[in-house]
Design a protein that fits this description.
It is a single chain. The chain contains 7 helices and 10 strands. By secondary structure, it is α+β, with helices and mostly antiparallel strands. The protein has 3 domains: about 60 residues, no CATH class; about 100 residues, 2-Layer Sandwich (Tetrahydropterin Synthase, Chain A), CATH 3.30.479; about 30 residues, no CATH class. It has a 3-stranded antiparallel sheet with strand order 3-2-5, with helices on one face. It has a 3-stranded antiparallel sheet with strand order 6-7-8. The chain is elongated, with a radius of gyration of 49 Å. The termini are far apart. The relative contact order is 0.08.
């Protein structure tokens, strides 16, 4: 019975300490950064329940999931022509304590976007517009490597960098369209020329075939063969009669053919 007051004393002290402290829950995909008397602590709070002392500690929640940021950039090429880029960068914070100490919660505006602009300005400034059009993958690859290296030192991981659209200067765009139209016309002319050559080859083949056929017929014709054709024609056409002429040239005539009346 003498121990009961001691137990009650400890319980009172425990509940009093709990009333002076607080707890916070850090969700999955988030990280907690603790500040004690305004000083950022080195330990990162992972998912779960964490206790803190109100008035002494402040817990900040940082999103460490993959995030997407889109930007529109107008940058000069090697010729001084302005090229418009539509970009998308996938990133996530990896060292939130370092970011909080050296940069702050607005690290996207203060670090990521300026680095993105500087990287593309450097890459595009070394290339001509035509090179950017012919090999856009080179542009993206070089910019991605530089951006990853620059942001990794800050505690930001760049997972991917995309160029979703490449806007060309007006004059250059017009010249490209004219070039494409000229190439299209050249292809059409080439097709017409090939078609004309094929048509000519077909006509030549037809002419050769007709000439060869005539030569074969000419060689096979004889007086006996012609006489055979006359007899065959008489047998097949009973209404056709053979009429002799003064020149001894045969002439066929239909039996029911009306006679032409001679007019004096």
């Amino acid at each position: 019975m003498l121990r009961l007051p001691v137990i009650l004393k400890y319980l009172v002290v425990f509940f009093f300490c709990c009333s002076l402290s607080g707890c916070v829950i850090v969700d999955e995909g988030m990280a907690g950064v603790k500040k004690r008397f305004g000083k950022v602590q080195d330990e990162t709070l992972g998912p779960g329940v964490h206790f803190f002392v109100p008035g002494m500690d402040v817990i900040e929640h940082w999103d460490i999931k993959t995030q997407r940021r889109q930007n529109q950039l107008d940058l000069p090429s090697k010729e001084g022509l302005i090229v418009r880029l539509e970009t998308a960068v996938l990133f996530r914070p990896t060292d939130v304590v370092n970011l909080r100490k050296k940069i702050g919660p607005r690290f996207v505006k203060s670090v990521l976007e300026p680095e993105l602009i500087n990287v593309f300005r450097e890459v595009i400034g070394k290339q001509k517009v035509e090179e950017l059009i012919n090999s856009p993958e080179t542009l993206t690859k070089a910019a991605k490597e530089n951006l990853k290296n620059n942001l990794a030192r800050r505690g930001i991981l760049v997972e991917d960098l995309l160029v979703t659209d490449l806007g060309l200067p007006g004059k250059f765009k017009d010249s490209i369209e004219q070039k494409l139209q000229a190439e299209q016309k050249a292809l059409e002319k080439e097709f017409e020329l090939d078609q004309a050559k094929k048509d000519a080859e077909i006509e030549i083949a037809r002419a050769k075939g007709a000439a060869q056929a005539q030569e074969i017929v000419k060689k096979t014709l004889s007086a006996e063969y012609l006489q055979y054709l006359w007899i065959s024609t008489l047998n097949e056409n009973p209404n056709v009669i053979y009429v002799s002429t003064e020149a001894n040239m045969p002439m066929f005539r239909t039996a029911n053919e009306p006679k032409v009346k001679k007019v004096n």
